[in-house]
Design brief:
It is a multi-pass membrane protein. The protein has about 160 residues and is mostly helical. It contains five helices and two strands, in the order αααβααβ. It is elongated, with a radius of gyration of 19 Å.
Length: about 160
Amino acid sequence: MRTDAPVSIVPREAQPYQGRRAGLVSRSIAGVIDGVVVVAVLLGGYLSVNGLRFLINPRGFQFSEASPVPGVTTGLLILVVYLAVAWSATGRTYGCHVMGLRVVSGRGGLLRPHVALLRAVFCALFPLGLLLCAGGRQHNSVQDLVLRTSVIYDWRPRATTMRS
């Protein structure tokens, strides 16, 4: 027997949450996943630079010393670029994708690039602002309140809203 009913891409169990604001646990897990992505990129860059140094001078090769201050600064820069590009392009990072989240503007659309960049800098420099979303019904972090953004549950593969 054939039915012509449309098939939803949102899992049945998730449908009641589609479009609702995400809480602390979902957002924190997505943040940890994104942190792992940034550390992997940073480690890959370190290994690539040392691999290039080895190719240039194999006999005198020694691994370069990984200093904490440049390493943290580079990691924060990678994090800001990663978050800003992902949020302005699709509204989600890899961590958001895994957790079924999307960062949206106050009107529900994709973030403008400058807003995404400001939010990324804010999140990188003040990650404790996320804790505010544990209280209250709106689940807004400090970043959300200041920049008028929201993090919602959205399992759709692409944002169907307009850039606002």
